[in-house]
Specification:
By secondary structure, this protein is an alpha+beta fold. It has 3 helices and 3 strands. It has one domain.
Length: 97
């Protein structure tokens, strides 16, 4: 069973693989409920939680999947980040990672 703190930690390798150092400086993350309410780092992962990744002024949402382990989460997030960057204003058309 994973908690939010585990998710935020597991997200770092995916972010570092796809984003440039400058983009990483302008990146933040949080986890919220379906109603947009923030949760604590000790919250147990459930299907109604969304990881939000903010890079500059752009946002990507990523639904969490409780049965997934940290490695599966990181791989899935990395794939989604590739698409996000390619469609973003800061990385338009770039295939990274």
């Amino acid at each position: 069973m994973m908690i939010v703190e585990d998710i935020l930690h597991a997200a770092r390798p995916a972010l570092e693989a796809i984003l440039t150092p400058k983009e990483l400086e302008h990146t933040s993350m949080d986890v919220v409920t379906t109603k947009g309410e923030p949760v604590t780092p000790s919250t147990i992962i459930s299907e109604d939680l969304l990881l939000r990744v903010f890079v500059y002024d752009e946002q990507m949402g990523f639904w969490l999947y409780p049965p997934e382990d940290a490695n599966g989460f990181t791989a899935r997030l990395r794939s989604e980040l590739q698409d996000f960057v390619a469609e973003s204003g800061f990385g338009w058309g770039e295939l990274r990672g």
